[in-house]
Amino acid sequence: MKAVVYKGPFTVAVEDVDKPAIQHPNDVIVKVTSTAICGSDLHMYEGRTAAEPGIVFGHENMGVIEDVGSGVTSLKQGDRVVMPFNVACGFCRNCSEGFTGYCTTVNPGFAGGAYGYVAMGPWQGGQAEYLRVPYADFNCLKLPEGTEHETDFILLADIFPTGYHGCELAQVRPGESVAVYGAGPVGLMAAYSALLRGAKKVFVVDRVPERLQKAREIGAVPVDFSAGDPIEQIKDQTDGVGTDKGVDAVGYQATGRSGGEEEPATVLNSLVGTVRPTGALGVPGLYVPADPGGPDEHAKQGKLLVAIGKLFEKGLRVGTGQCNVKRYNRQLRDMIIEGRAKPGFVVSHELPLTQASSAYDKFDKRIEGYTKVILHP
Ligand code: ZN
Ligand code: ZN
After folding, report:
1. Do residues 328 and 164 lie in contact, with contact meaning Cβ atoms separated by under 8 Å?
2. Domain CATH code at residue 81
3. pTM higher than the cut 0.90
4. Nearest ligand to the CA atom of 99
5. What separation in Å is there between the alpha carbon of 68 and the centre of ligand 2?
6. Which residues span the domain enclosing 192?
């Protein structure tokens, strides 16, 4: 079968690899219909991780079940399903308590597994014609038959729940104001989720005009940080107080106002400044325990100069970590089915899998409006 194979920094190729087969009675094989490229795939693509050439990318996957292991009870051939990017067992302590992003079964020595991702276990990615899904009863979310809402449902694999998770971590409640830093796909999903949760006013901070325009279109207030200090801009619009809550949808690859050089702590420190005393921050944006390409010695070891004193002084709460997709994907699916949520507005391109190489290149360079790319095998 065809699959997107990592060849080395800044190179992927669509190549023939072995088609996956049932290896355990709890597996299913999914014929992939949609698979998305994620900003976190670029961390591997750019050679910033320990990913070895040969890995098949793809943790955001949906499709139709083609083959069913003998131990699978709730699924059958022909079912349309979307899989959380988290691979999870369903029975370890963390899974039992709802923390499926921290499953201790699927990735021994670590907590948390994913398809097609370095250090997240042996699970082949789904940017391919077929995907093997382990613990399939637990990891497949059933979707209505047919092809309706395909570009909405594919976002249930990661970015819609992850954006929602940012709001959950920040405990966004109806009537609150929220500042979301980053108007990439996850930031837009976080802003959209804050509005779905009844926030009264949502600010979205970025510097890219098209991204800020998308934020405006969904009813958020765009804040262009290249035009002036975002903390001041937001305080000016919140009676000088700041927002009730904040979400970091940027992570460690943040850049300062001048652009150029990475300043990995700048978003966290901006949030400490933006959110009012006793507020809360949600941090779904990715930070890593080691970043060999980081801008200074501390950053290389995953350590940042965060204004912890100010954080303490303001009594801010902070929630971090990757999304436990299964906590939200069923409810968010139902909001899509009922027409209450249409996250697909964030998708910029839909392309055949065979164009993956140029799609990665253009997405990495952020050219031609590439923001969220869906590949169809
Ligand atoms: Zn992703
Ligand atoms: Zn588990």
Report:
1. yes
2. 3.90.180.10
3. yes
4. 2
5. 21
6. 159-320
Residue 167 and residue 316 in one domain? yes
Kindly state whether residues 279 and 172 are assigned to the same domain. yes
d(CA 230, CA 259): 14
Here the CATH number for the domain that contains residue 248 is 3.40.50.720
* Same-domain check for residues 188 and 235: yes
Identify which ligand lies nearest to the alpha carbon of 107: 2
Q: What is the pLDDT along the chain (377 residues), one digit of tens a residue?
A: 999 999 999 999 999 999 999 999 999 999 999 999 999 999 899 998 889 999 999 999 999 999 999 999 999 999 999 999 999 999 999 999 999 999 999 998 788 999 999 989 999 999 999 999 999 999 999 999 999 999 999 999 999 999 999 999 999 999 999 999 999 999 999 999 999 999 999 999 999 999 999 999 999 999 999 999 999 999 999 999 999 999 999 988 888 776 667 888 999 999 999 999 999 999 998 888 888 878 888 888 989 999 999 999 999 999 999 999 999 999 999 999 999 999 999 999 999 999 999 999 999 998 888 999 999 99
Q: How far is the CA of 319 from the centre of ligand 1 (A)?
A: 19
- Smallest-distance ligand from the CA of 184: 1
Ligand 2 centroid to residue 317 C-alpha, Å: 27
Question: Which residues, in sequence order, are CB contacts of 352 under 8 Å at separation 6+?
Answer: 375, 376, 377
Task: Count CB atoms within 10 A of the CB of residue 62.
Answer: 26
From ligand 1's centre to the CA of 92, what distance in Å? 23
Residues 6+ apart with CB under 8 A from 113: 86, 87, 88, 103, 106, 107, 120, 121, 123
Distance 138 CA to ligand 2 centre (A): 10
CA of 112 to the centre of ligand 2 (A): 8
Q: Which residues surround ligand 2, an ion (CB under 5 A)?
A: 88-89, 92, 95, 103, 105
State the sign of the Cα–Cα–Cα–Cα dihedral 307, 312, 313, 316: positive
Residue 160 C-alpha to ligand 1 middle, in angstroms?
A: 10
